[in-house]
Amino acid sequence: MLPMSIGLADTSTRLRSWIRGNLRYDLPASLVVFLVAVPLSLGIAAASDAPVAAGLIAAVVGGVVAGLLGGSALQVTGPAAGLTVVVAELVGRFGWAATCAITVAAGLLQVAFGLCRVARTALALSPAIVHGMLAGIGVTIVLGQLHVLLGDEPGSTPIRNLLDLPAQLANLHDHAALIGLTVIGLLVLWPRLPGPVRRIPGPLVAVTLATLAAVVWNDVDLARVEMPGSLLAAVHLPALPDGDWSAVVAAVLTVAVIASVESLLSATAVDRLAADRAAPGDRPPRPTNLDREMIGQGVANSLSGLLGGLPVTGVIVRSSTNVNAGARTRGSAVLHGVWVLLFAVLLVVLVERIPMAALAGLLVVVGLQLVKISDIQRVRRHRELAVYVATALGVVVFNLLEGVLIGLALAVVLILRRVVWARVHAERVRATPAGREHWSVHVEGTLSFLAIPRLSVVLGRVPPGSAVELELATDYLDHAAFDHLDGWVRQHETTGGSVHLDQVGPAALRGDQPRPRRRIHALVPPRWFSPWSSWQARHPDNGGEPHLSEQADSPQAALRPLHVGVREYHRRSAARLLPFLTELTGRHRPNSLFLTCADARIVPNVITSSGPGDLFTVRNIGNLVPTDHVAESSVAAAVSYAVDVLSVPLLLVCGHSGCGAMQGLLGGRAEEESHVGRWLRWGRPSLAAWRAGHPVGSAAVADGRAEVDQLAMVNVARQVAVLREFLAARGVEPGKVSVHGLFFDIPTGLLLVLDEQRQRFTWPPHHELETSGAGFVRP
């Protein structure tokens, strides 16, 4: 008795803690979810060709059982639109009682999945297949429910429903069509209404108004929801299917897999949503225990099937409503199931007055919402649109299982193609006055024996005796491809031709290790960090030497590195940069103004790990800020534009080691009557501060810095002070814009931050560093 008493005491303690701490959040959230769940449960049951009460039973069991046993604190479980097509097929083939038995078996299989700890395996299914499956289900729902909305019965297949739809639209329609169209219109317009109105669930309002309209018209021919008297009367035991056990096993597996995948994907989405909505300072929500969630979903499905309910899954619509309504614990999901139970038992009369056309209109909108533009854009961005479309069409034309298998097969084919497919391209660059042709050959990707036929065809177009630039940008080079490519290079050189090998990827054709010992799955990096001099010394555009018709120091020769660099950008970098530039189109909201020296060795985006749209960069000799006639200064204009127009919250001044401007100040160039000398006069206050023993300069002396670097550090501190004075003179509110100093040490490649409390440049505070996993060793 002692363990039982301890367990009861612990449960009682947790219940009291929940009442004191979270009931005030979970109770109103559960009411909002309940109002959303009732019409959706009724509509999904109707679309599944199941008894309407089965939807309410599933909502009760899913909310209470999965809410108590599942691994997600905020996910709400119930009948889902994603299983309507499957259930409708099972009901038509086996009958409703046998479908309930299949649901029980599918639930037990889910429990086995959870106990075997394979829940995360379900997440390996490509999102393109999952979203395509849901889109196909959505289209199927829409095509079937449009006929119900128009007062007719849906056909046996989605294709038949599509073919019959024009004739159905041409007929005259009664009150049912008007009610259904009204529901659709309300649900489409509801998200665009003012905030206070949107707090009322749109499906509840639409179905309620449609029911009131049906009561006012009192149309005897209007089909309404049929209930068997009470929810308790709808409860009955399942029955075993008659024969065809292979089809039954396939059905159990189908229901279990789809319910599991949808629940787990919904749970991970709820985790992200809850983390995004967590208030600053709150404890972050505990992530879902996916194996426990699988067990909870399995138990709920088995119990729902035993009681005559629909299969259940974690539903993102109800779950997101739960999170947005402010739920804190699983108590909200459990209470929502309790409210559905009370409604179904006590208010059966209200349920029976709901017109079927209203539920059809609701399901048309639900089906359309399963075809999400954001999903299509996402899979298109990842080059998986073909998988999405094939899966969706397969579900609509054939059935759900065959559609998923079609999408899975196509996904595997595309993956294999990407793994074994190499891009091979050859083009004639030009011919020299001596008649020698110059060719460029690019090989990119994975080069295996499967690519040899195409590689041979492309290389065969290169004429003997020509100068060839062979760019090998491969992540893997197998033995057969290595031998073929190496043999072609040797043969071409024996015919009087020349081959300049430019190896960019990890798989090498020349070197001590011609083939990597293990396959390296890595994108070929663009030359973002490499100066022209490191890779253009013998570029094929020159044939490995200056053009015969040009002098090496001619303007044309000076332009050549730029032209080669631009072509390199177009070939390797432009496509990778384009998605970011597309997002920034029409939006220029940089994080910081970055004032730095014009020294060519300072690359702001590289040393700050930033990209397009992050830095509003201003450069001049010595990173100086003129203090006299400020209104006419280009620096002042840039700062004013950044603060007033772009609303940047941060101004950064970055100096560097070995600065030529600081050397000029030390050497007296500020006294010269020249453009450089007159500009350097703005640095005289920094020089005077350094000579007077500025604390930053003293710290630099203690660190063993050379005089030019001491002055550069003092100059950064001085320009920071000048910018703050400039902001104050313009009336910028204190704290609105912060100003900070940086120092780039070229010999070590380190970027240091000015610590104004200690008056020295130091390593950035640890909490500001974010690494991506490769790690960074602090010096």
TrEMBL record:
Keywords: Membrane, Transmembrane, Transmembrane helix
Localization (cell): Membrane
Membrane spanning residue stretches: 27-47, 54-74, 94-116, 128-150, 170-190, 202-220, 245-265, 333-350, 356-373, 385-416
Major location (coarse): membrane
InterPro entries in the record: Carbonic_anhydrase, Carbonic_anhydrase_sf, SLC26A/SulP_dom, SLC26A/SulP_fam
Domain named SLC26A/SulP transporter: residues: 23-389
Biased composition (Basic and acidic residues): 538-550
Chain spans, region Disordered: 535-555
SMART domains from the UniProt entry: Pro_CA
Protein family membership: Belongs to the beta-class carbonic anhydrase family.
Function statement: Catalyzes the reversible hydration of carbon dioxide to form bicarbonate.
Protein name, as recorded: Carbonic anhydrase
UniProt organism field: Plantactinospora endophytica
The organism's taxonomic lineage, starting at the top: Bacteria, Bacillati, Actinomycetota, Actinomycetes, Micromonosporales
